Amino acid sequence: MAASDKSTLPNDPGTSRLKAPSVSKLKRPMAVSAALQNHGTAKGAAPPGGATKRPRVGGKGTSAAQSGTPKVNFTKIDKTKRRSSCRIRGVAATARRNPATTAGKALPSKANTASATTSKKTKRPAWDVKGKLEDMNALCNRQAAELNQQKDKDKTIDDILKRLKLLEGEKKEIQVVSTGQQGEISELRDQITSKDAENKRLKERERTLILDLDDRDTELRKICREKTALAKQLEDERKTNEELKIKLDQLENRYKEELQTSLSRKDVLDKQEEDIKTYEIERKRLLNEVIELKGNIRVFCRVRPHLKEEVAPNHIAYDGQAGKSINVMNGEKQSRYTFDKVFDCGTSQSEVFEELGQLVASSLDGYNVCVFAYGQTGSGKTYTMEGPDDISDDTCGIIPRAMKKLFEDGNERAKFGWEFEFHVEQLEIYCENVQDLLRPKNAPAAKLEIRTKKPSGQSAIWVPDLTSHEVKSYEQVKKLLLISKRRRATAATNANDYSSRSHSVFILRIAAKNTETGQKTESALNLIDLAGSERCGSNGSSGIRFVEGTKINNSLTVLGTVISSLSKKGAHVPFRSSKLTMLLSDSLGGNSKTLMIVNINPSPSAASESINTLRFATTVNQCNIGTAQKAVKF
Fold first, then answer.
1. Are 278 and 284 a contacting pair, CB within 8 Å?
2. Taking CA 410 as the corner, what is the angle to CA 404 and CA 416, rounded to the nearest 5 degrees?
3. If pLDDT is split at 50, 70 and 90, which confidence band does 224 have?
4. Full-prediction pTM beyond 0.90?
5. From the CA atom positions of the chain, what is the Rg in Å?
6. Which of 49, 76, 92, 568 is 20 to 30 Å from 630 at the Cα level?
7. Measured between alpha carbons, how far is 16 from 29 in angstroms, rounded to an integer?
8. Could you tell me the domains of the chain?
9. 359 Cβ neighbours under 8 A, 6+ residues apart
10. What is the rounded distance in angstroms from the CA atom of residue 132 to the CA atom of residue 137?
């Protein structure tokens, strides 16, 4: 809308009641319409668009008499009207071009004009028709001016209404667009919120990445420093390797030279080693022959391996003749003993058997052989003869090793025409009662008797009704040993948690025949695990354990008496005083190769009892029972 449409023409009686609407009112079309309607009513005119028309002054069909006014010269009036309209249009155009300038220039208002006319107007006389006509022309001019002003105002109002209609349409369009834009704005706000959260997350991520980057950068710098140090170290090692390579080449050359020398010496050493083995075998054979010629009972001494919870045996030493002497300190008194062989507490089972393997093998030649273990309770007799409870090839004792060796040697001699039959018997002497340990599964433990003559009349120690099992492999012997181990009488005492309460006697009867020469031999291998001597009063035994201990000590006392009588060449040897000495009469009477292994407890608290055992072993070692004879038949 032009600026002239918005300005108010001053001193205009028509515009004194109607002012141009403000911008805020243009936004409210209903209020403007009401204002326009009130304006039309105040002027006495019909609303815009009405059928009522303003009466035309001096128009056709209207006379001066009808209008109540004198006849007017309308040609002059029209000229005056045109001049007035031109002035009004000029003022309006100027107002449109520069509303600020024209706002202060007000046209003369109706009241001012009227007052001026009234002040100048004088009552004309009746004859002054010309004056009256001039007054009428002035009045017509004023009315024409007012009419033009009213037309301009109506036109302005029409423009305003059209503009309002356009603005209402635009408002509706803006409202529609605004409604759509409100949804878009809501979506954009949601997107902004999401973007803000994403931006916040990305900033947090950026901060984390920056921290991580700083850590990585620090780590990278550290790695670079380490790399530099390693590169330097690598260079140093490379130089060292080159030096070592040179030295290695020198050592290789020297090694080749030494190897050639060693190979030449190895042949010599191998030959010397074979000679040593041959000499050792010959030495043992000659020693065996010397002992047999002497007829003495051989004695080996073994100190039991000490247990983890025991104190190291500092009271025992092995000074003197290497491998044959033992010194025992009891308080401040030291005693030295010498035997055929002494084994310290670190000797293995295989090393012990190696010393008596040749003696055991002589049973295949037809000699009776007896090996028995003697010692106080807890000295390791059962361990030496049989092995521990969790027996293995490395820890098995003399009995399983002897059977394994006899089967191996028997197979070797088969190529020379020898055939062997092995029968195993095992019994125990419990409280002077002989019991079969290899009896049938459901058979009762019957008491057996020891006879000195066989039914054929031959003088020999013989136990009637004793079960005999033929064995052809070592595995069969292992099963029989497990059966006898379960049936043997054992119990826990104050001196030993697993104490043997009986004397166990393992008997292997061997029948040999040479198919080429027809030679036959019969022999027996007796492997005996004696019950341990104990002091019943000091160890707190009572009841059945006291009776068992008393019987064991009595039988061992009789054994000592028999050994003493043999060493003194007494006329009477009391073999029949106990079942044990009766059973050992053949082995101790001169028709057997006999070996006693005396076992020593390494505990310092058992030093006194160990000395008594060693004294008895010394007596046994000095006992001469004569030379064993081989029983040969053809």
1. no
2. 160
3. very high
4. no
5. 74
6. 568
7. 21
8. 1-44+70-217 (no CATH), 295-633 (3.40.850.10)
9. 288, 298, 369, 371, 593, 595
10. 9
